[in-house]
Structure formats: C-alpha cells, structure tokens
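User: Sorry, what's this?
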Amino acid sequence: MIECRIHRYAHLVWWPLLVVTLGGGCASTVAEYDRVAYQHAVALKVESLALMGKAVEPYVNHEASVFL
C-alpha cells in the first residue's frame, strides 16, 4: 500500500527536478569577454614562451640576467 502511494506521487518530485536540471543547463557558464584579461593572458603567454626558450640554453649564457 505504501509503495503504491510513492509511485503515484513520484511524478510530483521528478518533473520539477527534470525541469530545473534542464533549465540550468541553458545558463551560460562562461564569463563575458574582457579585453583587459585577454591582453594579460596574451602577455603572460609571450613571457612564458620566451622563458621556456631560454630553458634549453646553458645557465652561463644568462647568468647576468638572474636576480638573486
């Protein structure tokens, strides 16, 4: 008898959960475009690639530019 009542009212729980889940999937999860953040990201990429380019050369070649 109890099991019958659970099944009878299950749609009252599952439909709202389904609607909220599918509706939440339509929301944007990506931040809006920010020009300044993009410029910083590009500058960081350029600096990182330059640093990695120096990483394959001997330390003696860049010893003067190291800050201790």
Remarks:
- The chain has a mean pLDDT of 80.
